[in-house]
Amino acid sequence: MIELKSVSYRSDSLEVNNLSFHLNAGETAVILGPNKSANSAFLKVCMGAHPISKGEVLFDGGALVKYGSDADMWRKICFISHEPALLDNLTVMQNAGLPLSYHLGWSEEQIFEKAEPVLKEFGLLHVARDFPSQIGKDDAKITQLARAAILEPKALLFDEPAAGGLNPEIFLRILGAFKYFQAGGTAVLFTTSSPSLAAAMKIPCYLFVEGRVAEIMEAHESPFPEIRDYVARIRNQAKQQSMAASTFFDRISAV
Questions:
Q1: What end-to-end distance do the CA atoms of the chain give, in Å?
Q2: Which end of the chain is more exposed for a tag (fewer CB within 10 A), N or C?
Q3: Helix or strand or coil: residue 99?
Q4: Residue 97 burial by CB count (10 A; 0-12/13-18/19+): exposed, middle or buried?
Q5: Which of 116, 122, 95, 135 is nearest to 177 (CA)?
Q6: CATH label of the domain that carries residue 58
């Protein structure tokens, strides 16, 4: 579905060389790395929206030269930024159906017919007529996912869903949304700098550290010291969190 072949590119101060990666059709995977801006650039490379100096980016078996070069690419690959991307003067329903009105000229009635079951599935029907200023940041995130779901894309790229923090309710809603995309055969790739979120998803996880990529199950044998050092830091952090939690519950038991 999405394949990077020996790709080289520059992102801010990070130089990436000979990077290879593959995401299968219908697969859901997470990219875990400490550098948020590097994670964002990685997703943009995967969709042809970030320039590369070497290598090849393939999508659905064909070369992806530049995002937008294919007139229908907007409905094949959906990208969700960690920053809010809703228009203040449009309702939740109108924001969700914006690509259909902008690209295809659909009427509000047509959009409502298409969007209503998706908004209901994503728990947004009760705020469908509200404007972004009237809803919370959690519903804003889900609205962006609903907008992607309406298009039935082949691939969804989600940059840092945990940006700004995730409470348990929104986390479960995002999990439900990912399952919705999986059921429809959409490949999902998202980035995070949170090891806890990556672990909770129980899906294939790839580490992206200083321009190096490794599947997490093979990271301890990685030839790259950057990957091995990052794994060691994650393990140490997990151990400290476990000890802190154990101490906390011991205190509760003693009360």
A1: 55
A2: C
A3: helix
A4: buried
A5: 122
A6: 3.40.50.300
For the chain, the helix, strand and coil percentages under 3-state DSSP, each to the nearest 5 = 45, 20, 30
Residue with token string 């298009």: 151
Beta-strand relationship, 54-59 and 2-11? antiparallel
**In terms of DSSP H, where are the helices of 24-87?**
36-46, 73-76
Confidence (pTM): 0.86
In which residue are the tokens 């990912």 written? 178
Counted domains in the chain: 1
**What are 124-154's pLDDT values in tens digits?**
999 999 999 999 988 999 999 999 999 999 9
**Crossing angle for the helix pair 137-151 and 108-121, nearest 10 degrees?**
120
* 233-252 pLDDT tens trace: 888 877 776 676 666 656 66
Distance CA 216, CA 200 (A): 14
Structural domain including 35 reads 2-254
